[in-house]
Design goal:
The protein is mainly alpha-helical. It has six helices and two strands. The protein is elongated.
């Protein structure tokens, strides 16, 4: 019989649900979504944004916005230009950028377990695992769910 008063290490109290930290986005990925959503609301045309104004609008620290601009630019999600008239803008319409695109730009490939992460083989039961054949489907479902949410829908920009 399970003691209902017993405290489990993953639960603060018996009424609290289990929280899956490993499925939570990093703060940086979360901030990237916030920043890209704000950029989408401003980048309907050829206008460029600067990091300072975006930091002010979103409440994100300027160094964080600058770091995100660098990563998102490297991933091809935003275009940046230096100098007079410089700044950055979305590289394609908000409807063509998914939540999966943003998360992968910051976190790397979406992989629920190491056995779906192409290059990694660090599981000690990998050879005898009966669940391994099913992780690709689970991983695909999670990635598909993220891919199904467009930046346009997150930012309220018409598609």
């Amino acid at each position: 019989m399970v003691d209902p008063g017993r405290q489990h290490p993953h639960m603060r109290n018996r009424n609290e649900s289990i929280r899956l930290d490993w499925m939570r986005l990093s703060s940086l990925a979360d901030y990237a979504v916030v920043m890209m959503s704000a950029a989408a609301r401003h980048c309907g045309g050829v206008a460029r944004l600067n990091a300072t104004s975006l930091a002010e609008e979103t409440g994100l620290p300027l160094p964080t916005v600058q770091k995100l601009v660098s990563r998102l630019s490297a991933a091809g999600l935003i275009e940046s230009a230096r100098g007079t008239g410089g700044g950055f803008r979305l590289s394609r319409p908000a409807a063509a950028i998914s939540l999966a695109d943003i998360v992968e730009a910051i976190e790397g490939p979406i992989a629920m377990t190491s056995c779906v992460d192409g290059g990694r083989h660090d599981c000690c039961i990998e050879e005898n695992c009966r669940v391994k054949p099913h992780w690709n489907a689970v991983n695909g479902a999670v990635k598909g769910a993220l891919a199904g949410v467009s930046l346009a829908s997150l930012s309220g920009v018409p598609a």
